[in-house]
Amino acid sequence: MELEINVGICGKQEVVVDQNNTATALGSGDVPVFATPAMIALMEKTANDSVKQYMPKNHVSVGIEINAQHIKATPIGGKVTCESFLSKVEGRKLVFNMTVYDGDGKVGEATHSRVVVDKDRFLGKIKND
């Protein structure tokens, strides 16, 4: 399988902080602000969605690593934007630089790695384990 994915692909997603994606709701803390797990999920979704159209037939990308920093809190009602930049392609491995920000500045950043897999083979391995 030859990947036709080039460095430089960008993605962007926005969410509004509500009761469902707070640290209180997700159990990661005791304050009603944008949760770190929600930020990481947004990062993974942004990166994944940015490369979906480049996947070979029946292939998907799966997250394998993320090194993230959550720098500041965003309150309920705040709009959070995530941007991804595909910085490296190593065989089937895709490495993204991620930045999350709100109206007051940077909220978080990360390096996120995904690997391209054959969806049926991947799911078959799980069923056989």
Automatic annotation (TrEMBL):
Listed Gene3D superfamilies: Hotdog Thioesterase
Residue span, Fluoroacetyl-CoA-specific thioesterase-like domain: 17-119
Residues annotated for CoA binding in this entry: G63
Cleavable signal peptide: none
Coiled coil start-end: none
Enzyme active site: T36, E44, H70
UniProt: substrate binding residues: G63, R114
Designated name of the protein: Thioesterase family protein
Organism: Candidatus Onthomorpha intestinigallinarum
